[in-house]
Amino acid sequence: MPNKKPSGNPAPLKPADFDEALERYREYLKRKKLLFTRERIAILEEVMARHDHFSVEELHDSLKANGKKVSRATLYRNLDSLKEAGILAEVDLGNRHVQYEHVLGHRQHFHIICEETSEIIEDDSVEVEKAVEILARKHGFDVSRIKLQIFGTKRRK
Amino acid sequence: MPNKKPSGNPAPLKPADFDEALERYREYLKRKKLLFTRERIAILEEVMARHDHFSVEELHDSLKANGKKVSRATLYRNLDSLKEAGILAEVDLGNRHVQYEHVLGHRQHFHIICEETSEIIEDDSVEVEKAVEILARKHGFDVSRIKLQIFGTKRRK
DNA sequence: GGCTTCTTCGAGATTGAATCTCGATTGGAC
DNA sequence: GTCCAATCGAGATTCAATCTCGAAGAAGCC
Fold it and tell me: Are A24 and A85 a contacting pair, CB within 8 Å?
Protein backbone atom coordinates (compact mmCIF):
# COMPACT_ATOMS: atom_id res chain seq x y z
CA MET A 1 0.00 0.00 0.00
CA PRO A 2 1.46 3.34 -0.96
CA ASN A 3 2.03 6.19 1.39
CA LYS A 4 -0.98 8.05 2.71
CA LYS A 5 0.36 11.46 1.98
CA PRO A 6 -1.27 14.71 1.01
CA SER A 7 -0.39 16.23 -2.34
CA GLY A 8 0.48 12.77 -3.63
CA ASN A 9 4.05 13.42 -4.51
CA PRO A 10 5.24 9.94 -5.33
CA ALA A 11 8.46 10.31 -3.36
CA PRO A 12 11.28 9.55 -5.76
CA LEU A 13 12.80 6.84 -3.65
CA LYS A 14 16.26 6.12 -4.83
CA PRO A 15 17.14 2.63 -3.71
CA ALA A 16 20.77 3.62 -3.47
CA ASP A 17 19.90 6.00 -0.64
CA PHE A 18 18.15 3.30 1.28
CA ASP A 19 21.04 0.92 0.82
CA GLU A 20 23.48 3.51 1.99
CA ALA A 21 21.33 4.28 5.01
CA LEU A 22 20.96 0.61 5.81
CA GLU A 23 24.68 0.11 5.61
CA ARG A 24 25.36 3.08 7.79
CA TYR A 25 22.75 2.02 10.33
CA ARG A 26 24.07 -1.50 10.45
CA GLU A 27 27.55 -0.22 11.16
CA TYR A 28 26.23 2.12 13.80
CA LEU A 29 24.35 -0.68 15.54
CA LYS A 30 27.36 -2.96 15.47
CA ARG A 31 29.57 -0.23 16.85
CA LYS A 32 27.10 0.40 19.66
CA LYS A 33 26.57 -3.33 20.20
CA LEU A 34 22.87 -3.00 19.44
CA LEU A 35 20.77 -5.61 17.74
CA PHE A 36 19.60 -5.53 14.16
CA THR A 37 15.88 -6.04 14.56
CA ARG A 38 12.98 -6.17 12.11
CA GLU A 39 11.41 -3.16 13.81
CA ARG A 40 14.49 -1.04 13.30
CA ILE A 41 14.54 -1.96 9.62
CA ALA A 42 10.85 -1.20 9.25
CA ILE A 43 11.34 2.24 10.78
CA LEU A 44 14.36 2.92 8.61
CA GLU A 45 12.45 1.93 5.48
CA GLU A 46 9.60 4.23 6.34
CA VAL A 47 11.88 7.10 7.22
CA MET A 48 13.79 6.79 3.97
CA ALA A 49 10.60 6.51 1.93
CA ARG A 50 9.49 9.93 3.08
CA HIS A 51 10.94 12.98 1.50
CA ASP A 52 9.05 15.60 3.42
CA HIS A 53 8.89 16.65 7.03
CA PHE A 54 6.99 14.38 9.36
CA SER A 55 6.02 14.11 12.98
CA VAL A 56 6.40 10.98 15.06
CA GLU A 57 2.65 10.53 14.97
CA GLU A 58 2.55 10.68 11.19
CA LEU A 59 5.35 8.18 10.95
CA HIS A 60 3.55 5.89 13.34
CA ASP A 61 0.43 6.09 11.19
CA SER A 62 2.17 5.35 7.94
CA LEU A 63 4.00 2.41 9.48
CA LYS A 64 0.67 1.02 10.54
CA ALA A 65 -0.80 1.74 7.11
CA ASN A 66 1.99 -0.26 5.56
CA GLY A 67 1.30 -3.20 7.80
CA LYS A 68 4.34 -2.65 9.99
CA LYS A 69 3.07 -2.48 13.52
CA VAL A 70 5.63 -0.78 15.73
CA SER A 71 4.78 0.57 19.14
CA ARG A 72 5.13 4.21 19.99
CA ALA A 73 7.80 3.47 22.57
CA THR A 74 9.92 1.57 20.07
CA LEU A 75 9.49 4.34 17.57
CA TYR A 76 10.72 7.01 19.94
CA ARG A 77 13.58 4.87 21.13
CA ASN A 78 14.80 4.21 17.62
CA LEU A 79 14.31 7.65 16.18
CA ASP A 80 16.90 8.72 18.69
CA SER A 81 19.33 6.10 17.44
CA LEU A 82 18.68 7.08 13.82
CA LYS A 83 19.46 10.63 14.79
CA GLU A 84 22.67 9.55 16.43
CA ALA A 85 23.61 7.53 13.38
CA GLY A 86 23.31 10.66 11.26
CA ILE A 87 20.43 9.36 9.18
CA LEU A 88 17.70 11.50 10.62
CA ALA A 89 17.51 15.08 11.81
CA GLU A 90 15.05 17.06 13.82
CA VAL A 91 13.63 20.12 12.19
CA ASP A 92 12.32 23.19 13.93
CA LEU A 93 9.71 24.84 11.78
CA GLY A 94 8.56 27.37 14.32
CA ASN A 95 5.47 25.46 15.35
CA ARG A 96 5.36 23.52 18.52
CA HIS A 97 5.87 20.04 17.23
CA VAL A 98 9.11 18.26 16.73
CA GLN A 99 9.42 17.14 13.16
CA TYR A 100 11.94 15.02 11.38
CA GLU A 101 13.47 14.65 7.98
CA HIS A 102 16.04 12.20 6.74
CA VAL A 103 19.42 13.55 5.84
CA LEU A 104 21.00 10.86 3.75
CA GLY A 105 20.52 11.51 0.07
CA HIS A 106 19.64 15.10 0.78
CA ARG A 107 22.15 17.84 0.86
CA GLN A 108 22.46 19.98 3.93
CA HIS A 109 19.79 22.63 3.67
CA PHE A 110 18.20 25.43 5.58
CA HIS A 111 14.59 26.41 6.08
CA ILE A 112 13.05 29.67 5.05
CA ILE A 113 9.67 30.03 6.68
CA CYS A 114 7.00 32.52 5.73
CA GLU A 115 5.37 33.95 8.84
CA GLU A 116 2.18 34.77 6.97
CA THR A 117 1.50 31.63 4.97
CA SER A 118 3.71 29.06 6.76
CA GLU A 119 5.16 28.22 3.40
CA ILE A 120 8.50 26.49 3.79
CA ILE A 121 11.33 26.76 1.32
CA GLU A 122 14.46 24.67 1.53
CA ASP A 123 17.75 25.74 0.16
CA ASP A 124 21.38 25.77 1.02
CA SER A 125 24.16 28.27 0.68
CA VAL A 126 27.85 27.68 0.61
CA GLU A 127 28.36 31.24 1.78
CA VAL A 128 26.27 30.69 4.89
CA GLU A 129 28.10 27.46 5.60
CA LYS A 130 31.45 29.15 5.25
CA ALA A 131 30.50 32.03 7.51
CA VAL A 132 29.15 29.64 10.12
CA GLU A 133 32.31 27.60 9.92
CA ILE A 134 34.41 30.68 10.60
CA LEU A 135 32.21 31.74 13.49
CA ALA A 136 32.49 28.31 15.08
CA ARG A 137 36.22 28.07 14.57
CA LYS A 138 36.63 31.39 16.35
CA HIS A 139 35.36 29.61 19.46
CA GLY A 140 37.38 26.46 18.88
CA PHE A 141 34.45 24.41 17.68
CA ASP A 142 34.28 21.68 15.07
CA VAL A 143 30.89 21.92 13.41
CA SER A 144 28.86 18.75 13.15
CA ARG A 145 25.46 20.13 12.26
CA ILE A 146 23.90 23.48 11.43
CA LYS A 147 20.27 24.28 12.09
CA LEU A 148 19.15 27.48 10.47
CA GLN A 149 15.65 28.83 10.26
CA ILE A 150 15.01 32.10 8.51
CA PHE A 151 11.67 33.63 9.38
CA GLY A 152 10.28 36.32 7.18
CA THR A 153 7.63 37.29 4.72
CA LYS A 154 7.52 36.80 1.02
CA ARG A 155 7.67 40.04 -0.89
CA ARG A 156 4.82 40.40 -3.26
CA LYS A 157 5.74 41.97 -6.54
CA MET B 1 20.21 16.59 29.72
CA PRO B 2 20.35 19.61 32.00
CA ASN B 3 21.21 22.90 30.50
CA LYS B 4 24.38 24.73 31.20
CA LYS B 5 24.25 28.47 31.43
CA PRO B 6 25.56 30.21 28.37
CA SER B 7 29.00 31.59 28.63
CA GLY B 8 30.44 34.35 26.53
CA ASN B 9 29.20 37.89 26.84
CA PRO B 10 26.97 38.16 29.88
CA ALA B 11 24.75 41.14 29.27
CA PRO B 12 24.60 43.78 31.98
CA LEU B 13 21.18 44.84 33.17
CA LYS B 14 20.57 48.35 32.06
CA PRO B 15 17.43 49.88 33.56
CA ALA B 16 17.06 51.72 30.28
CA ASP B 17 16.33 48.37 28.69
CA PHE B 18 13.39 47.80 30.96
CA ASP B 19 12.03 51.24 30.26
CA GLU B 20 12.34 50.68 26.56
CA ALA B 21 10.66 47.32 26.82
CA LEU B 22 7.88 48.78 28.94
CA GLU B 23 7.30 51.52 26.42
CA ARG B 24 7.27 49.10 23.54
CA TYR B 25 4.95 46.73 25.33
CA ARG B 26 2.59 49.55 26.25
CA GLU B 27 2.41 50.62 22.64
CA TYR B 28 1.87 47.06 21.51
CA LEU B 29 -0.98 46.57 23.97
CA LYS B 30 -2.62 49.81 22.96
CA ARG B 31 -2.33 48.94 19.29
CA LYS B 32 -3.89 45.55 19.94
CA LYS B 33 -6.51 47.05 22.25
CA LEU B 34 -5.31 44.93 25.15
CA LEU B 35 -5.32 46.01 28.75
CA PHE B 36 -2.30 47.09 30.74
CA THR B 37 -2.49 44.83 33.76
CA ARG B 38 -0.32 44.36 36.83
CA GLU B 39 0.30 40.74 35.83
CA ARG B 40 1.65 41.75 32.45
CA ILE B 41 4.01 44.23 34.08
CA ALA B 42 5.15 41.66 36.60
CA ILE B 43 5.96 39.20 33.84
CA LEU B 44 7.76 41.84 31.82
CA GLU B 45 9.86 42.82 34.84
CA GLU B 46 10.85 39.26 35.48
CA VAL B 47 11.63 38.59 31.84
CA MET B 48 13.82 41.64 31.56
CA ALA B 49 15.62 40.88 34.81
CA ARG B 50 16.85 37.60 33.42
CA HIS B 51 19.77 37.53 31.08
CA ASP B 52 20.02 33.85 30.54
CA HIS B 53 17.80 31.28 28.93
CA PHE B 54 14.81 30.20 30.91
CA SER B 55 11.89 27.85 30.67
CA VAL B 56 8.33 28.83 31.44
CA GLU B 57 8.53 26.78 34.60
CA GLU B 58 11.62 28.60 35.80
CA LEU B 59 10.02 31.93 35.10
CA HIS B 60 6.95 30.86 37.01
CA ASP B 61 9.10 29.90 39.96
CA SER B 62 11.06 33.12 40.09
CA LEU B 63 7.88 35.17 39.82
CA LYS B 64 6.57 33.31 42.82
CA ALA B 65 9.86 33.75 44.64
CA ASN B 66 9.59 37.49 44.11
CA GLY B 67 6.12 37.57 45.53
CA LYS B 68 4.40 37.98 42.21
CA LYS B 69 1.84 35.25 41.96
CA VAL B 70 0.85 34.73 38.35
CA SER B 71 -0.94 31.63 37.17
CA ARG B 72 0.54 29.33 34.62
CA ALA B 73 -2.25 30.07 32.14
CA THR B 74 -1.65 33.80 32.36
CA LEU B 75 2.04 33.28 31.96
CA TYR B 76 1.67 31.27 28.77
CA ARG B 77 -0.88 33.68 27.37
CA ASN B 78 1.35 36.65 27.91
CA LEU B 79 4.61 35.12 26.83
CA ASP B 80 2.98 34.84 23.45
CA SER B 81 2.16 38.53 23.43
CA LEU B 82 5.68 39.43 24.53
CA LYS B 83 6.94 37.38 21.66
CA GLU B 84 4.66 39.16 19.26
CA ALA B 85 5.75 42.51 20.63
CA GLY B 86 9.34 41.64 19.78
CA ILE B 87 10.52 41.65 23.38
CA LEU B 88 10.97 37.94 23.84
CA ALA B 89 12.19 35.14 21.62
CA GLU B 90 12.05 31.40 21.78
CA VAL B 91 15.36 29.58 21.72
CA ASP B 92 15.99 26.09 20.52
CA LEU B 93 18.94 24.60 22.32
CA GLY B 94 18.60 21.08 21.07
CA ASN B 95 16.94 19.74 24.16
CA ARG B 96 13.24 19.09 24.24
CA HIS B 97 12.05 22.12 26.13
CA VAL B 98 11.08 25.46 24.75
CA GLN B 99 13.20 28.14 26.29
CA TYR B 100 13.09 31.88 26.08
CA GLU B 101 15.40 34.82 26.18
CA HIS B 102 14.65 38.50 25.94
CA VAL B 103 15.79 40.31 22.87
CA LEU B 104 15.69 43.97 23.79
CA GLY B 105 19.06 45.19 24.95
CA HIS B 106 20.75 42.18 23.46
CA ARG B 107 22.18 42.12 20.03
CA GLN B 108 21.07 39.48 17.61
CA HIS B 109 23.12 36.40 18.36
CA PHE B 110 23.45 32.78 17.48
CA HIS B 111 23.99 29.72 19.61
CA ILE B 112 26.93 27.40 19.42
CA ILE B 113 26.18 24.23 21.33
CA CYS B 114 28.69 21.63 22.41
CA GLU B 115 27.26 18.16 21.92
CA GLU B 116 29.53 16.69 24.57
CA THR B 117 29.23 19.13 27.43
CA SER B 118 26.07 21.07 26.52
CA GLU B 119 28.06 24.24 26.91
CA ILE B 120 26.40 27.09 25.07
CA ILE B 121 28.23 30.01 23.54
CA GLU B 122 26.49 33.04 22.15
CA ASP B 123 27.93 35.19 19.45
CA ASP B 124 26.93 36.93 16.30
CA SER B 125 28.51 37.38 12.91
CA VAL B 126 27.86 40.04 10.36
CA GLU B 127 29.10 37.65 7.69
CA VAL B 128 26.50 35.05 8.60
CA GLU B 129 23.79 37.67 8.64
CA LYS B 130 24.81 38.95 5.24
CA ALA B 131 24.91 35.49 3.72
CA VAL B 132 21.50 34.67 5.18
CA GLU B 133 20.11 37.91 3.85
CA ILE B 134 21.31 37.06 0.36
CA LEU B 135 19.90 33.55 0.57
CA ALA B 136 16.51 34.89 1.65
CA ARG B 137 16.42 37.59 -0.98
CA LYS B 138 17.07 34.96 -3.63
CA HIS B 139 13.64 33.57 -2.73
CA GLY B 140 11.98 36.97 -2.46
CA PHE B 141 11.90 36.97 1.32
CA ASP B 142 12.26 39.84 3.75
CA VAL B 143 14.01 38.49 6.83
CA SER B 144 12.45 39.23 10.17
CA ARG B 145 14.29 36.80 12.39
CA ILE B 146 17.15 34.35 12.12
CA LYS B 147 17.45 31.30 14.33
CA LEU B 148 20.79 29.60 14.03
CA GLN B 149 22.10 26.75 16.13
CA ILE B 150 25.53 25.38 15.48
CA PHE B 151 26.10 21.95 16.98
CA GLY B 152 29.60 20.67 17.35
CA THR B 153 32.36 19.77 19.72
CA LYS B 154 34.96 21.94 21.29
CA ARG B 155 38.44 21.14 20.13
CA ARG B 156 40.72 20.42 22.99
CA LYS B 157 44.19 21.85 22.64
C1' DG C 1 -15.39 58.79 43.61
C1' DG C 2 -19.02 55.20 41.62
C1' DC C 3 -21.07 52.72 37.60
C1' DT C 4 -20.68 49.86 33.51
C1' DT C 5 -18.64 47.01 30.17
C1' DC C 6 -15.46 44.16 28.45
C1' DT C 7 -10.99 42.08 29.09
C1' DT C 8 -8.22 39.36 31.73
C1' DC C 9 -7.20 36.41 35.53
C1' DG C 10 -6.83 31.99 38.24
C1' DA C 11 -7.73 27.21 39.85
C1' DG C 12 -8.39 23.15 38.33
C1' DA C 13 -9.51 20.00 34.52
C1' DT C 14 -7.98 18.40 30.21
C1' DT C 15 -5.05 17.22 26.45
C1' DG C 16 -1.47 14.95 24.12
C1' DA C 17 3.38 14.13 23.10
C1' DA C 18 6.97 11.77 25.22
C1' DT C 19 8.65 8.50 28.58
C1' DC C 20 8.60 4.62 31.64
C1' DT C 21 7.45 -0.20 33.33
C1' DC C 22 7.89 -4.82 33.16
C1' DG C 23 6.61 -9.33 31.45
C1' DA C 24 6.94 -11.42 26.74
C1' DT C 25 9.62 -11.92 22.63
C1' DT C 26 13.61 -12.23 19.69
C1' DG C 27 18.39 -11.69 17.64
C1' DG C 28 22.52 -13.75 17.32
C1' DA C 29 26.55 -16.09 19.39
C1' DC C 30 27.69 -20.63 20.50
C1' DG D 1 18.81 -25.92 18.53
C1' DT D 2 19.94 -23.57 23.13
C1' DC D 3 20.64 -19.73 25.82
C1' DC D 4 20.58 -15.03 27.50
C1' DA D 5 20.87 -10.31 27.14
C1' DA D 6 18.77 -6.88 24.26
C1' DT D 7 14.57 -5.40 22.63
C1' DC D 8 9.77 -5.16 22.12
C1' DG D 9 4.74 -3.82 23.13
C1' DA D 10 0.63 -2.40 25.76
C1' DG D 11 -0.71 0.37 28.90
C1' DA D 12 0.36 3.47 32.70
C1' DT D 13 2.54 7.59 33.75
C1' DT D 14 4.47 12.11 33.37
C1' DC D 15 4.35 16.80 32.54
C1' DA D 16 4.29 20.92 29.62
C1' DA D 17 0.80 23.34 27.43
C1' DT D 18 -3.99 24.51 26.74
C1' DC D 19 -8.76 25.14 27.89
C1' DT D 20 -12.92 26.40 30.81
C1' DC D 21 -15.69 29.46 33.05
C1' DG D 22 -16.93 32.15 37.12
C1' DA D 23 -14.42 35.92 39.66
C1' DA D 24 -11.57 40.02 39.56
C1' DG D 25 -9.97 44.11 37.55
C1' DA D 26 -8.84 47.92 33.90
C1' DA D 27 -10.50 51.91 31.69
C1' DG D 28 -13.87 55.02 29.87
C1' DC D 29 -17.69 57.77 31.40
C1' DC D 30 -20.37 60.59 34.39
Answer: yes
Q: How many CB atoms lie within 10 A of CB A15?
A: 8
Ranges in chain A, pLDDT < 70: 1-15, 157
Domain that holds residue A131: 110-152
Closest partner residue to A141 (CB to CB) among B139, B143, B153 is B153
Determine whether the distance from the CB of B51 to the nearest atom of strand C is below 7 Å. no
Residue B78 lies in a domain: yes
Q: Residue A135 and residue B128: Cβ atoms within 8 Å? A: yes
The answer to whether residue A95 is domain-embedded is yes
* pTM listed for this prediction: 0.82
Decide if B69 touches A, using CB distance below 8 A. Answer: no
What pLDDT is stored for residue A136 in this prediction? 98
Chain B contact present for A148, CB below 8 A? yes
Report, as ranges of residue numbers, the positions in chain B whose pLDDT lies below 50.
1-12
User: Is B108 inside any structural domain?
Assistant: yes
Distance from CA of B152 to the nearest CA of A (A): 4
- Residue B101 φ/ψ, nearest 5 degrees: -155, 150
pLDDT for position A102:
92
> What is the SS3 assignment for A149?
strand
